[in-house]
Specification:
CATH class: Mainly Alpha
CATH superfamily: Hemerythrin-like
CATH topology: Four Helix Bundle (Hemerythrin (Met), subunit A)
Order of helices and strands: HHHH
Helix content: over 70%
CATH architecture: Up-down Bundle
Number of helices: 4
Number of strands: 0
Number of domains: 1
Strand content: under 5%
């Protein structure tokens, strides 16, 4: 799923984006694979924990970088990050209260994929353009 055009030109952020895409790709392959539900469930739970932890690490790093370069759209970016963290936490609560169903897991994977592609492929590209306009990585 990772494409070189998703790079924004900031090494740390690009590496974190690649890790997110890698993990999400593995997760989607598992969900679509012809293995038992129990085998899928382990990967689903692993991905939930990863996403809860890693998006916080990534968003903190991305926002710290935006502050460092005085990125003009930082508040909008923070708001979008907060909404995504909330959405992940809502899925965690849903899974805890209603259990893991194949339908909900597929919905979760589709939302993750859509969000990641749209956010990295569009919103984060604006950070890259801002940095390039300033002469490169700051």
């Amino acid at each position: 799923m990772w494409k070189e055009r998703y790079k924004i030109g900031v090494e740390l952020i690009d590496e974190q984006h690649q890790e997110l895409f890698k993990r999400l790709s593995e997760f989607i392959r598992t969900v679509q694979n012809n293995i038992t539900w129990d085998e899928k469930l382990d990967k689903v739970k692993e991905t939930m924990v990863f996403m809860q932890d890693y998006v916080v690490v990534h968003f903190d790093a991305e926002e710290a970088y935006q502050e460092k370069i005085q990125y003009p759209n930082i508040e909008k970016h923070k708001e979008i990050h907060a909404k995504f963290k909330e959405e992940i936490n809502n899925y965690v609560k849903l899974f805890e209260s209603e259990g893991f169903t194949e339908e909900t897991v597929k919905e979760f994977s589709a939302k993750l994929m859509t969000w990641l592609i749209m956010h990295v492929g569009k919103m984060d590209q604006e950070i890259g353009e801002y940095v390039k306009g300033k002469g490169g990585e700051i």
